[in-house]
Amino acid sequence: MTSSNIAVIGGDGIGPEVTAEALKALTAVAGADAFNFVHYDLGAERWQRTGEVLPDSVLDELKGVDAIVLGAVGAAPGSKAIPSGLLERGLLLKLRFAFDHAVNLRPSKLYPGVPTPLAPRIVDGKTVDFVVVREGTEGLYCGNGGAVRVGTPHELATEVSVNTAYGVERVVRDAYRRAQARRGHLTLLHKHNVLVNAGSLWNRIFTEVGQEFPDVEQKYLHIDAAMIALVVDPSQFDVIVTDNLFGDIVTDLAAAVTGGIGLAASANINPTGEYPSMFEPVHGSAPDIAGQGIADPTAAISSMALLLDHLGKPELAKRIDDAVTADIEARGSEKLGTVEIGDRIAARLA
Amino acid sequence: MTSSNIAVIGGDGIGPEVTAEALKALTAVAGADAFNFVHYDLGAERWQRTGEVLPDSVLDELKGVDAIVLGAVGAAPGSKAIPSGLLERGLLLKLRFAFDHAVNLRPSKLYPGVPTPLAPRIVDGKTVDFVVVREGTEGLYCGNGGAVRVGTPHELATEVSVNTAYGVERVVRDAYRRAQARRGHLTLLHKHNVLVNAGSLWNRIFTEVGQEFPDVEQKYLHIDAAMIALVVDPSQFDVIVTDNLFGDIVTDLAAAVTGGIGLAASANINPTGEYPSMFEPVHGSAPDIAGQGIADPTAAISSMALLLDHLGKPELAKRIDDAVTADIEARGSEKLGTVEIGDRIAARLA
Ligand SMILES: CC(C)[C@H](C(=O)O)[C@@H](O)C(=O)O
Ligand SMILES: CC(C)[C@H](C(=O)O)[C@@H](O)C(=O)O
Prior knowledge:
Chain A is α/β, with parallel strands linked by helices. Helix content of chain A is 42%, strand content 21%. In chain A, α1 packs parallel to α12 (338-349). The two termini of chain A are 19 Å apart. The interface between A and B is large, with 76 and 76 residues. β7 of chain A pairs antiparallel with β7 of chain B.
């Protein structure tokens, strides 16, 4: 059996800590020979040392791997040492765009026994288990904007949301397929009553592609109304499809209501397979708790199930999912350390 | 005593129903002679009858009033009878922009006894009482965008967020003043790690204006992180300032966690007084429950406290707030009709 080449970017803050546990789980489930891990030293420290964020030579190398495992990148908000967003845009978003990660997949599931901030009457007896399919290569994330008269009382700054039929169609189609393979419900989130140009495009494609999926029930919600729906009845959702920024916002809320960002996994998928897909926890680098060994690696480990699925090993993916589920249920609201959680899950997988 | 001229736009769906109760409260607290109500027949029905949304002659007339009371406008999402967003943009947003409603003020308060979707451990023993100051005349709400090759597989649709130092400064300053008059905490919500042009402008103004308010503690949160904060610890907020679209999204979540959109009041304030300000519940026209007499008029009634405050009658505003608070606490989770709630609050005010 040939082993898969996995590029590993631990990144900043708690990134390397949770990534180590993710790799531990991968090795435990698939054996030491299944993967060839190549570690890349990228992130805040490298930038501070060398002024490099993601050199072209590294980008070229990454292009050839089978998948990328990412921890987290980014300095603390308000940090003076690193310009705001430099690493997010130069590394994380750069990879999503360079490798055409059209489908940003973010499952949310409330496991039994996991403390949720929602009241018992909202979740008791209900199944909260949905997937957000977030567009990953367009919208307000294109870096298409500018500013004039910067620093003066006459400054004007713009940000442009770019949406193409091509980009919307592929992510909407992906979402319909997932809905079809799940419980058959797909919800489009947008704000078409205000963002009329982008909204009309999303609506049109949603309706057109929907005709190919007569067995999938279609629903539309304004993004603001979705905020309410996610806290008063999250069990109503099966698959959600939305644009890049709305997807960013809604998946943090989704993570929060299903027990926290420490459990939320994600995949950045290149649909054609031309480029490597990338797997990462939804959470950020959390510099406030870095180095203490207390970050929850569950999201990073769960992301490995998405990676295995993507690499065509659904049985191994399921074993990770099952081990994670069992461990989450076993630990209840007990606070465990990063390595401890990683070891417990690896033990279940061995 | 001269009476104030109030333009009343009941609008669509439950709009007229809740507005009637709001006017009842106004009359009860201030006497029948304090206000001269002029009703304007605008909204879906008028458009369907005449093809007019907001004729220039009406806009001119409205310019001269002391304040505007708005119910709600907008057809059901997905309605085929009325083009998406036609009324929202042609009436509601038109008024906000024409009358330069820079400060969209949205208080959120969790009243004792009100059912919240949050778990007891999140809210018990805590005070959840904050105000969102949402910018109302810029951002993605300018209608600045377009589309080419519409309806084809090559369609490109854009939306432009427009941010000026002038527009940001006035709303940020307003927010600092409010924070100073409250508990002294102001949080800026944005996404400056991705929306770098707009984000830098908001950051700069936030910091600059903040120097005039050394007694106000400043904090920054990414909009996605704010989603989590609002459900895991909403008591941390005092005043929030943010842009038009983030404000739209965050205030629906804020309303949801503090007992629902039926209680959320809002003011669209023209800071110079050159144009009339406008007072409305945060909720929409809710066509699904229109005509049944079951819509909660509390938000519309609370908006009248904001109106009275704005018209320089803080004692009357406080009486409305007190009556609303008392009634909310008295009713607990009992379901009451629209008129019944209006009558109960009016009785407390008489
Ligand atoms: C770090 C940031 C650029 C990123 C995003 O906005 O996409 C993060 O919030 C996420 O959700 O993956
Ligand atoms: C109806 C709609 C245009 C409006 C908005 O987006 O501002 C509403 O959601 C609100 O929050 O007042």
